[in-house]
Design brief:
2 copies of one chain form a homodimer. Chain A has about 325 residues and is an alpha/beta fold. Chain A is about 40% helix and about 20% strand.
């Protein structure tokens, strides 16, 4: 009896702090999703406001879990942020997606103080990639690339069965690879970044410029979002279809380069824009195949699949990453 | 005395089988280069002719070494080939740089039979990368990329201190990454491959089209080689200078993409064309920096250096790889 009562289920909490939405999940070490919430966030909020928001949400989730599953114990928290992090020190080094006071912020120390729980920091795209590895489309692959197509474009790498973060934790910056050397100027200073021509933001921009008729419920150009453009394309709008085909082709150019560089087994495509499914994936797949004929099917090819986790991948990955770090497993 | 006489120096032999030249080295396990030869090869020779050529050269080198250093013992041979290899079976899977009968050839079995020595097969660009890791510009880095700019363009990756060959041994195919989506058609079927616009072959093509005056010792356009174009540039020819600047910029676009994808500590540049030094590296470096501002110096940047091994990197790496495989060390 004593033995039974001391065997509590270990749970970790993952938080994906996006520009417009905060996603939070609680996962058991057996992989069961125990709780899942989404709340709107204002990315321009000062860091202290967001940390307090997170602390409230974590407390609510802990109360909810212990009410329904008294045998559980929350042991770790992982926070995924859009930006460059320094994992050893737990600092956010550089972000443009959050308020300026996040730059240089000792986020791990702040979380630990606010939550009284062990906490880790991870880049959001790498968190999504780790989520795909543990619970998503990457299961069964030792070498895969994850690309997240949302407002911006991020990525992450799993090589030899492990998340590969690069020499300074900044691998997978696929949104700033060049697909058009003389293309439009990006905020990063480069021309023709993938993010400038194939992100959700690029789809919205292209729609505002090129779509003339009404789409969706409103005739206001504010109604142009990647989702409404996808709906218009499915409803037969030729311009909307061409916008998605172009987006897919540009993604195919960039991912073809990734295939030539890394020879992965698979590419897992996630993020909000990927919800368009074959509208995006068909032209993308065609472009990758055309540009990587040396990696033909008879030499293994590359599997291209939609993320089964969708926009929860980051929060799930952050929770799993926190659990893994707590176990003291070495992971690079 | 007995103890002394049984302590023989262990040596491995590396062979880099190129399209025009065969390089062969013998290296002690202490890193000392004991022998080094280069002979012209005809890439169109049938495989049996080349295997016999290799067997003769290896026998000569063994005789030379045992004459000068009787305490040595050759224990392994590594063969680097330009193409896709299947390491577990020791087959060459696919090559366009050698005679057609190399496709599907059980090269390791043939070498073992011809040499009576353990033998391993490795891709030539990956061999050069491994050579840079053990004896060249990659020493001291855990994460670096090697790019070899010769007649064609190859590459290799060292991640976490190990050669990373990709899921099917085909990582680092940098010559077929796209730098101009609508650029010139490559033999691989893609448009705008790096190799089409920035290789030694591309420099020669550009010179034939755009250089009008005499360069080098002859006025015949056959005298246009990457070396004579470099000499013309150094002598002040503006067109030749522009050809090298363009080559460097295209390499910078492709390597900028590699930096964004992998966040390496360093890029080691080798191959015959890299002998042009700053003529090539200055515009390349400038382009990489311009296209990867997110990887600024304060966030580690990326070191860009010339290979100190030059065109011996492949043979040295093949020898070192053979020695490593013999030690039974696991390497991926």
């Amino acid at each position: 009896m004593l033995h039974m009562s001391t065997r509590r289920r270990v749970v970790s909490i993952g938080i994906d702090l996006g520009g417009t939405e905060l996603k939070i999940v609680a996962i058991g070490d057996d992989g069961e999703l125990l709780s899942r919430r989404r709340v709107s966030t204002d990315a321009t909020s000062p860091r202290q406001v967001l940390i307090e928001r997170i602390a409230t949400l974590v407390a609510e989730i802990r109360a909810e879990i212990s009410a329904t599953s008294p045998e559980t114990m929350v042991v770790a928290v992982g926070l995924a942020v859009p930006g460059v992090i320094d994992a050893p020190s737990g600092h956010v080094e550089f972000t443009v997606a959050l308020a300026e006071d996040w730059n240089g912020f000792a986020a791990v120390a702040a979380l630990k103080a606010a939550l009284s729980l062990p906490a880790v920091l991870i880049n959001d795209a790498q968190a999504a990639t780790f989520g795909e590895l543990t619970d998503g489309g990457g299961r069964g692959y030792r070498d895969f690339v994850c690309v997240t197509v949302g407002t911006g474009i991020g990525g992450g790498l799993v090589l030899g069965g492990r998340l590969y973060a690069g020499s300074r934790g900044m691998s997978g910056v696929l949104g700033h690879t060049t697909v058009l050397p003389d293309g439009p100027l990006c905020a990063c200073g480069n021309r023709g970044c993938l993010e400038m021509v194939a992100s959700g933001a690029a789809i919205t921009r292209a729609a505002k410029t090129r779509l003339t008729g009404d789409i969706g419920a409103s005739s206001c150009s504010d109604s142009y979002t990647p989702r409404t453009v996808a709906e218009a394309a499915i409803a037969g709008d030729a311009v909307a279809q061409e916008i998605y085909a172009e987006t897919g082709r540009y993604l195919g150019v960039a991912l073809g380069n990734v295939v030539c560089t890394l020879n992965p087994q698979a590419i897992v495509v996630g993020g909000g824009v990927s919800q368009a499914g074959e509208l995006l994936l068909a032209p993308m797949r065609e472009e990758i195949v055309r540009r990587t004929s040396v990696f033909s099917v008879e030499r293994g090819g590359v599997d291209i699949l939609l993320s089964p986790l969708g926009s929860d991948a980051g929060a799930i990955g952050a929770a799993r990453w926190a659990a893994k770090q707590r176990q003291g497993a070495t992971a690079t």
